Amino acid sequence: MEKLMEMLPFLLPLLIVELILLIVALRHILTHDTYKRGNRILWIVVVIVGMNYVGPIAYFLLGKEEA
Question: How many helices (H) and strands (E) does the chain have?
Fold first, then answer.
C-alpha cells in the first residue's frame, strides 16, 4: 500500500489524461455519423475496451472523419 501512495502523484495525471481522452472520443463518436473506417458501434467498443490510451487514440487516427 505504501508503494501505491508513493506512486499516486505520478499515476493521477495519467489517469486524468486517460479519462479525458475517453470522454472526448466517446462524445465525438456519439455526435458524428460518418467515420473513415467502421461504424459507431465498432468505435464505441474499441474506445471502451481499449480504454488505456490505445482505443481513443486509435479512433482519432483511424476512425475520425476529416472535416
Answer: 3, 0
Other C-beta atoms within 10 Å of 44: how many? 16
- Region of residue 38 (phi > 0: left; psi between -120 and 50: alpha; otherwise: beta): left
**Rounded CA separation 21/17 (Å):** 6
Are 58 and 46 in contact by the 8 Å Cβ rule? The answer is: yes
By the 10 Å C-beta count (0-12 exposed, 13-18 middle, 19+ buried), 55 is classed as: buried
Q: Which pLDDT score, from 0 to 100, does residue 41 have?
A: 92
**Residue ranges per domain, the chain?**
12-63
Instruction: Specify the pTM.
Output: 0.73
Quote the cell numbers at residue 52. Answer: 488505456
